[in-house]
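Hi C.,

You asked whether I'd gotten around to modeling the 283-residue construct. I have! Everything is below, sequence then structure, no commentary in between.
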Amino acid sequence: MGKNWFFETLSPDATIGLRVKNTLYKKKSKLQNIKVLDTYSFGRTLVLDGIIQTTEKDEFIYHEMLTHPVMLTSSRPENILVIGAGDGGILREVLKYPVKKITLVEIDKTVINLSKKYLPSIHKNSFASKKLNLVIENGAEFVKNTKEVFDVAIIDSPDPVGPAKILFSKKFYKNIYEILSPEGIMARQSGSTFLQENELKENYKILKDIFPYVYIYTAGIPTYIGGLFSFIMASKTKKTADLTAAGERIIKSLKTKYYNRDIHRSCFMLPEYIKKLTGWKEQ
């Protein structure tokens, strides 16, 4: 294996390799190193600072699982905040709902421009939606300064390194809490349950200190190495992760490739090792 392979090293002892057909883009923006690779097994792949963000082959699992559980658990998903998500996958999924407005805050405009050009199968022209309010800004600064109130917040950030590190801080989560409506709810990715244990454990603990109801759920995503990948949903008032009555109706007509009613029920059922790692208890 040589120059035609891309390797992501998530820990000193674990790596994932993808054989590359062609490098479509490789350059450093003002904020990060960006690559768009065309790979044999996973199609076009977006890489930021050496870490796989999304691939054409398995993106639907991640984007559906970060979007639909929180949208269908929310009692009023009308005004939506999305932080990160420059590839357009979350935006695509949120637009499957009759929302009134989506504010997408992405720190690096280059990511959006490259995604528009190289990843049309992921964004599916969602950036052209009239419901979209696109903001190029640091997500933490936006949350700190906005006067707007949101029903749902979806945090689709890279791992807690570089410019994304602040999006995992207690201060950031407190600001998210403040800009959510009285029945507001948020969701975020929280890393591999095997190779990023501290990321899951620390984020769960911080969110439990701020929100009264916090739920962990999981999915298997092939290019996010380390077994089950984790997500966290936190709510001001929702005492259960069950679907709302409206959610029960919507899910019957929802067009997805991975997520469905059975997945919603099962994804919140946690293995013992995750319960012990996080100290999770029935609410």
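If it helps when you're writing up: The domain at 59-278 is CATH 3.40.50.150 (Rossmann fold).

Thanks,
B.
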